[in-house]
Amino acid sequence: NSWLTLRTHLFCFVWQIAMIILFGVFIRYDKESNAHWVETKAHDNITSDIENDFYFRYPSFQDVHVMIFVGFGFLMTFLKRYSFGAVGFNFLIASFGLQWALLMQGWFHSLDPQTGKIFIGVESLINADFCVAGCLIAYGAVLGKVSPVQLLVMTLFGVTLFAVEEYIILNLLHARDAGGSMVIHTFGGYYGLAISRVLYRPNLHQSKRMQGSVYHSDTFAMIGTLFLWMFWPSFNSAITDHGDGQHRAVINTYLCLASTVLTTVAISSLSQKTGKLDMVHIQNSTLAGGVALGTAAEFMISPYGALIVGFFCGIISTMGYIFISPFLEKTLKIQDTCGIHNLHAMPGVIGGIVGAITAAAASESVYGKQGLINTFDFTGDFKDRTVLTQGGYQAAGMCVSIVFGVVGGAIVGSILKLPIWGDPADENCFDDEVYWEYPSHSGVQQPHDPQAARPVSPFSMLCLTISHKSLVIC
Predict the structure, then answer these.
(1) Out of 230-234, 343-347, 359-363, 416-420, which region has the weakest mean confidence (pLDDT)?
(2) In this structure, what is the dihedral angle of CA atoms 190, 191, 193, 195, given to the nearest 10 degrees?
């Protein structure tokens, strides 16, 4: 344990020092966050600070940031004894990943050839959060089975692979993927699944007692679901063009998510002989519509089209938890803790297909001539591209994300399998006590008091605290 702690300390210190050095060499403020903005305004005849991109993008950035740190973190607190690891390690890898993402995405997308510097603004922060989201998705597949050092290594390689596949899909293929169905969810899903397959534990049943949830852990996980569900329209529209594209992305995602909830509830109820609902389905499958509409969010898919996508996503994702997850574990030996195949990988592929079909079916009568150019960015080297060709490149982008996820995950999984990372033993998986100071050991219990040995849930503690404060106020 002491050597494990030392390794965690070393990795965190060394990598943060490396980030400081690399930021000092490469990262600078862009023209809209630089103190020379006053001169830029005068030069470009900008009359008001409201034209600064900060005022357009920051509300979306706030929403995406909450999704990354609160939504993803709390969604994974469903395990009865792994809430600290879910929220705490989510916090750790997101904080490391966003720094590395600013560098990697900067080197590929915004490196100034004259100065050799990367200039960052608020949109850079959104894209870094998107990059981190792919790694957090992958974390869901190995939740409770890896050490914090393994998570940092997984994030280091995950962000690197993400930056490369993002550059290929968005820049070289010129595919559109505003909400990241392909770039984020498909890649992150298959990256995590491939790592989980390589790290397969044949004796994981020794921790089966820890794998389930309890009433209050499911309630806390539902908090993550609601934050993600509410802010997903911002996620899918955050980096779209100002104006109609961003407006349309919000509307389409909003409708798709609402439709997904109803079909998820319907299938969950139908799957049980008693007709009752399964909280696993409600926590996860209700979000699948937001994933699947990420690529086509800014397209003219129409409001009823968004409802149709959500309708089928709720069915497919819920059926995935019922039938596909057991098949993956039993036959393919993929132990997917959070079911990311059903929430991210499979809906991400659906999103790529929907995007390809919608792009290929686009017409000037629906979009208008200038609308087609703006929506699909048919400018510069791509000004002569047709919508059918665009549809083909959208499909190619989906294939690239799958290949990067599967191959990259297999390679990174092989690295993580080396016996040097301090991962938990089979009988200690899904248990916070391996890596965290556990609060039950910090207090002194009176053995003669029958109430002292009775565990108190975090939810009960919250209620007791509120009641106590109310009495004090009275």
Answers:
(1) 416-420
(2) 160
Instruction: Calculate the alpha carbon distances from 456 to 81, 219, 461 in Å.
Output: 13, 15, 7
Structure tokens at 147: 């050490």
pLDDT at 5: 60
* Long-range residue pairs from 226-229, CB within 8 A, at least 24 positions apart, any chain: 227/66, 227/67, 227/70, 227/71, 227/74, 228/67, 228/71, 228/72, 228/75, 228/287, 228/290, 229/257, 229/286, 229/287, 229/290
Over the stretch 259-280, which tens digit does the pLDDT of each residue have? 999 999 999 999 999 999 999 9
Rounded CA separation 148/146 (Å): 7
- Distance CA(218)–CA(214), nearest Å, equals 6
Taking a C-beta distance cutoff of 8 angstroms, is the pair 412, 195 a contact?
Answer: yes
Buried b (16+ CB within 10 A) or exposed e, 21-60: eeeeebbeebbbbeeebeeebeeeeeeeeeebebeebeeb
Look up residue 282 and give its two tokens: 């409600």
Helix axes 53-66, 215-237, angle to 10 degrees: 160
pLDDT value at 458 more than 60: no
Instruction: Provide long-range contacts, Cβ within 8 A and 24+ apart, for 114-117.
Output: 116/26, 117/26, 117/27, 117/28
Q: Which helix (H) or strand (E) holds 14?
A: helix 2-26
Contact 210, 430 (CB under 8 A): yes
Whether 134 contacts 184, CB under 8 Å? yes
What DSSP designation does 429 have? T
What's the longest Cα–Cα distance across the chain? 82
According to DSSP, residue 341 is labeled I
What pLDDT digit, counting tens, does each position of 206-242 carry?
Answer: 998 998 899 999 999 999 999 999 999 999 999 998 8
CB 182 within 8 A of CB 176: no
DSSP tag of 7: H
In the chain, the amino acid numbered 175 is A
Task: Specify the amino acid at residue 445.
Answer: Q
List residues bridging with 120 in a β-sheet.
29
